From TrEMBL:
<dbReference type="Pfam" id="PF10175">
    <property type="entry name" value="MPP6"/>
</dbReference>
<protein>
    <submittedName>
        <fullName>M-phase phosphoprotein 6</fullName>
    </submittedName>
</protein>
<dbReference type="GO" id="GO:0000460">
    <property type="term" value="P:maturation of 5.8S rRNA"/>
</dbReference>
<feature type="region of interest" description="Disordered">
    <location>
        <begin position="114"/>
        <end position="137"/>
    </location>
</feature>
<dbReference type="InterPro" id="IPR019324">
    <property type="entry name" value="MPP6"/>
</dbReference>
Length: 137
């Protein structure tokens, strides 16, 4: 097994030359970044997490995927446009068995009463209604 290859480094005397200032600064920044990166998650990542392998569960069926949410998601205002779309999708979902009301109950009751009143009025004969007589043979 071969060891980890290190990037060849320029000698300090070359880096101290005037035309190499930018390169020296860049190399110093890269070194700081790599040190910061290691310490950034050191308190979160445990040795067990580093050495773990094969943390996968396989399922033969797709049943577990049926009720998963599709598409892009956003939480806590990170992407307001996506959250607005998520709200619209929630409003579209109507529970089965219930219907949305197009007309409020009170307006519907008034219309129904007016309809019944007109129907009753037309069923009573008036002096202008013509009565059809059946022809007898």
């Amino acid at each position: 097994m071969a060891g980890v290859k290190k990037k060849p480094q320029l000698p300090k005397s070359v880096l101290d030359m005037k035309f190499m200032k930018k390169t020296k600064e860049r190399l110093e920044r890269e070194l700081e970044d790599t040190q910061d990166h290691g310490s950034l998650y050191s308190n979160i990542i445990t040795n067990a997490m580093r050495s773990a392998s094969g943390n996968y569960v396989t399922e033969a069926s797709f049943i577990f995927c049926e009720n998963l949410m599709e598409g892009r998601l956003s939480f806590k205002g990170m992407n307001p446009e996506i959250e607005r779309l998520m709200e619209q999708e929630k409003l579209k979902e109507i529970p089965s068995g219930e219907m949305q009301k197009d007309i409020p109950d009170d307006i519907l009751a008034k219309k129904f009463q007016a309809f019944n009143k007109r129907k009753r009025d037309s069923s009573t004969p008036s002096k202008y209604t013509m009565v059809k007589k059946k022809k007898s043979h």
